[in-house]
Amino acid sequence: MSISVSQGCCFHCGLPNIDGDKYPVSIIGQTHFMCCPGCQAVASAIVDNGLESYYEFRTELAARGDAALDNTMSKLAVYDEPELQEEFVFEQGKDKQIQLTVEGITCAACAWLIEKQLAKLQGIKQVSVNVSARRALVTWDNDQIKLSGVLSRMKAIGYESLPFQSDNHEASFKKEQKAYLKKLGLAGIMTMQVMMLAMGQYFDIFGNIDAEAISYFNAVSLLLTTPVVLYSGSIFYVSAIKAIQARTVNMDVPITVAIIATYVAGVLAVNKDAGEVYFESICMFVFFLLISRYLEHRSRHKATEISSNMLKLIPVTALKMSDGQWTSVLAKQLITGDKVLVKAGQSIPIDGIVIDGKSTADESMLTGEFEPVKKQVGDRVFAGSLNQQGSITLEVSNGLKHAMMNQILRLQEMAMGSKPKVALIADKLSRYFVSAVLIISALTYWYWWSQDDPHAFWITISVLVATCPCALGLATPSALTCAMAKLNNIGILLKRADALEQVTHASDIVFDKTGTLTEGQFSIAQSIFVEKDKAEHYLALACLLESRSEHPIARAFSLDNVALPLDESQWQISEYRTEIGKGIRATVNNTACLIGSKRFVLAQLGISQDTLDAQASLTLTGANVLLAVDGEVKAAFWVTDTVKNDVIEVLTRLDKYSLRILSGDDTSNVEAIAKQIGIRHAFGNCSPEDKLSHIREQQSQSRSLIMLGDGINDAPVLAAADVSVAVGNASDLAKNAADVILLNPSLHSLVDLIEMAEKTKRKIKQNIAWALGYNLLVLPFAVSGVLSPWQAALGMSLSSIIVVYNSTRLMR
């Protein structure tokens, strides 16, 4: 609950309010008074950024704002408050990470500028900017720099930024869109008027126009063009100034030079009443460019709103059990362990475990599959999914900040921070291209000026406009953003964007068997006990040991599956230790016990398969789990699984790859599964070290591998593979090691991933080929003076629009 503030005290810091009602702030529909401009600035910042619930649930009064502090810095300092950071700042080991909404990003050069400038700050560990989404992911050391310092630096280089929140991000988009429409509308209206005056002169439709009338028309055209240049075109100048201040050039530099130079030349011509004016070209140039930027802006937003809108599926409030009653609270207040009621037809507000009730859930927003998923006691449910039938009670497993939905969005932003090689090449090429455009323009002017050509200036302007590499800068980021949005929509998450590029180079696909090719629903098909009269005792011991394991095979030993009563009070367990991917060792009732894979148990006992068969007078071929007590094998289990229904169909579509299985299961079981699904290369009894050695051996032979797995024991080999994929309900460790996470357990998602990677590669190549081809094609026409400035502007705008449109086709 929130603390109370005494009457006559500052609502923000609690100190005596000497100035009365001098510094008011409206908070949650009520007006409260602050003691100084500093507290007023901080409180206003909290309200303006949608964080006013801070005042409802704070447990301590805030520190007093610095009354003498600059107002901007006061507003930014609020983000250093731990209570506010709890909502949008994530811990990355010793560092902190935040996702920012950034206003004013127009092209790839903006992203490059932000990344380079922030990287210069001490304490900044990583910066990645997603141009299409207008977001930045920043990781920093909080001991060296505060969040307010990061935001302040962003503002200093000309970009307004604030922590990403879906509602605020949407409001930011609408704000920018409204600004575009205002500038575009003004440019369009003025362009029509100026064109009418220009057409009158060009075609002499008013009869024989004398010099005085022409001067008058030019003066009116100047008057109409001025707001277009100063207001509508300001977006280009601001971007160019940012780049120059950072000692670099971006695509808006040649555009700015062209607009300003043409306008100044026109002003001089009107004042001197001599020379040519191209006011209609300026207006058309700005108008066409703004249309292009506006359409790019909408297309980029369309590509990212699929992911952003996922957060809107999460309800704002939840019914929480408090003092024996269900009370409505904010979903973001819920913490691990809280009990939450979700009625039929309501969206689930938080990630949790079902502790009461049965229902079905629509998880299509996560997996892309619209088939309802049954939920009962013990099953996990996710925020944003729809509870379709009965009421269920949940126990919260993760706060809203760490919900699966939020993790998906964070993964997308992290993925955009790792650019493919082709993206890095395109970004670098575009910056060099801008410099080349400026040099070519200067050489063009020098040549035509030396030829005494009166149109030298206008030819140079056409070169500046026509060859600006805006399309080249959009070629890669637009394609990657659209591809990732489409993959998110079908339940495929990328943790790094360059994984898409590496998928297209893969030669082999390696599968773990358990849970990847098979259902992961284990059962004990057969069991053998050396001492038959103690069969129930050893089965109970095996169940007891496996009950504490997270390995999928341990589910086969659940008491429900074996129908065995077990009183754990009769067993004293100590020194319990899990060997990842191998087995379990523990001391039970002062007796050394061992259970795990046949290879692991035999290795620990120091005996061979033949020796075991002779000692036990039994043939244990095919048994994949052994139980040993006091150094002797007492039981053997044949734990089986079933192949997923879609595996054979999927594998036939992957016939161009070399397919193989690496599994820790018994070799005979692995070979049987491989024969059933048609994979020729299968290896069983593989420890995590064996899998890792196999992967590295193949890589040493210049083979590129995609590895699919889902277990804890798969984490090392997933980390080593060229592209690693965590399948379905993978362990957290496997997800952390993987480059790609398939939320849908169906292997069809792997085919979708490969197909999208191929399509994205083609689109990027098409975009770059078009952008470079257009610039190289139009350059001779511009240099030779064939193109007028407005024709050059139209061509450049169409080039950018074509690139963006081509990328959005990936989302179909």
Task: Summarize the structure in words.
This protein is α+β, with helices and mostly antiparallel strands. Among the domains are: 23-80, no CATH class; 87-167, Alpha-Beta Plaits; 318-399, Distorted Sandwich (Calcium-transporting ATPase, cytoplasmic transduction domain A); 492-518 and 644-743, Rossmann fold, CATH 3.40.50; 523-640, Calcium-transporting ATPase, cytoplasmic domain N, CATH 3.40.1110. 48% of the residues lie in helices and 18% in strands. The chain contains 28 helices and 29 strands. The strands form six sheets. It has a seven-stranded mixed sheet, with helices on both faces. It has a six-stranded antiparallel sheet with strand order 9-8-10-16-11-14, with no helix packed on it. α8 packs antiparallel against α10. The protein is globular, with a radius of gyration of 33 Å. The two termini are 48 Å apart.
Instruction: Specify the biggest β-sheet.
Output: 7 strands, mixed
For the CA atoms, what is the radius of gyration?
33 Å
By CATH reckoning, the class of the domain at 492-518 and 644-743 would read: Alpha Beta
CATH H level of the domain at 492-518 and 644-743: which superfamily? HAD superfamily/HAD-like
CATH fold type of the domain at 492-518 and 644-743: Rossmann fold
